[in-house]
Amino acid sequence: MFNLRRSILCFFFLVVAIAQSWSSNFITAADSNFVYMGRVSRTNPGTVAWTYPGVQVICRFTGSSVSMKTNPGSGFYIIQLDDRMPFKVESKKGEEITTIAKNLKNETHELHIIYAIEGHGKKPVFYGLFLDDGARLLEPPSLPDRKIEFIGNSITCGYGIEGNGKEKTFYYSLQNFCLTYAFLTAQALDAQYHVVARSGIGVYRNYMGKIPEQIMPFIYPHTMYTTKGELWDFSLYQPDVVCVALGTNDTTGSYSVSGLTGGFRRFVAMLRERYLNAKIVFLVGPMMGEKRRNDLKTAQQTVIDEYAAMGDTNLFIFEFQESDKELGMGSQGHPNAAHHAQMADELTPYLRNLMQWQ
Length: 358
Hints:
- The chain contains 7 helices and 16 strands.
- Strand 15, helix 6 and strand 16 (315-319) form a beta-alpha-beta unit.
- The protein is α+β, with helices and mostly antiparallel strands.
């Protein structure tokens, strides 16, 4: 005969046993041996949160296994563990614990957890890591001295980068920041990076004029993708060079060159207020026809000339080659991984020469 009370008790003890096995050696996100790259919020004790792609959690640990705790359904992460090939894991709905690796050699390991997608819809929260009993975090690796900030739109986010050109909608599973020109360029230059990017965003109007109150200058002062709440402390990260990849969305539909110019003028003033000595490079993206590219460069050059007249000669334009169909396409006309690799091959030597980074 079915014994409901006994079944409930067995289920309770099973849940407790599982919880105890996970919590036997939990290292919270606030541990000083974690290093974070990117804009993160620490407003809730013991946790770290963010919304932008490319944020990294970096540490060294001992032991033979590692799992991470996040809010359920926070999306996709790229894992770089020791010298292994990077691989993608997913934080699924209803699951707080995501296994990263097990059956490792019981020795010191270096781990980079990289947020692969734009998280404004996922609101990722990192709670910490589960390690073997007796294992621990060690002193973290040092970050590179060189610093880049990438400000951009869907291309910088890696929108559809793993697609095949046939997708007619957006899939988080096809987004991967670690394949983007931004990530590859930073790696090639041995530089830290911060990313402030969102699909569809512009400097004076978003894609087809949508959501004008959420253009980049409005959200940029904030830690998260929002126009309210926590403001970012710019003293925490002072880039040597800022790459601004905006204008593609501004020039969709009916747009104004004067509006575009005014948008860049206001945004550069905002950047200069926060980064007095950084070089600012306007990036002209590959998803634009000749007229839009020329209008964009006209607006950017106007602002560059205005600042040069005031003695600021640290503003520049870099133009990517137009999309090469022979390389294939990602989702909805966006660059795929091969095209992003080409973009990185173009941008890397330009920044190396500009910054004199040998």
